[in-house]
Design brief:
Shape: elongated
Distance between the termini: 52 Å
Radius of gyration: 16 Å
Strand content: 35-45%
Length: 113
């Protein structure tokens, strides 16, 4: 069976909350459905990965993990109160071999139970 066509792109998974002191983002790339991929090939090195608070323009740059088993993990320390309820955050990943990926997210307020 022939491999269906697909566009190479970055894939990002990340979660953040108002109490976080560290931001960790899993960053990989997509592969074709018929490709066999070793666990060593998931990581994408040298990605410029940033997050910024739209309200304050504070920008953090995430660095690729130096742990040989977590090369698909990008992380950075987060200053106290960086993530604030109601603020909008912009996550952006740039690499010369892939289209830029970006998203916006508003941190929700406390949930009433």
């Amino acid at each position: 069976m022939d491999q269906p066509d697909f566009e190479k792109q970055l894939v990002i998974h990340g979660f953040a909350g108002t109490a976080d002191t560290m931001l960790r983002v899993l960053l990989t790339r997509n592969y074709g459905i018929l490709e066999t991929v070793s666990s060593d090939d998931w990581a994408v090195p040298n990605v410029n990965l940033t997050i910024r608070d739209e309200n304050t323009s504070n920008i953090l740059t995430l660095q690729q993990s130096q742990n040989q088993y977590d090369k698909d993990l990008y992380e950075t320390g987060v200053p106290p109160a960086f993530f604030q309820a109601g603020h909008r955050y912009h996550l952006r990943a740039e690499h010369p071999d892939y289209p830029t990926v970006e998203s916006w997210q508003t941190i929700p307020g406390p949930i009433q139970v």
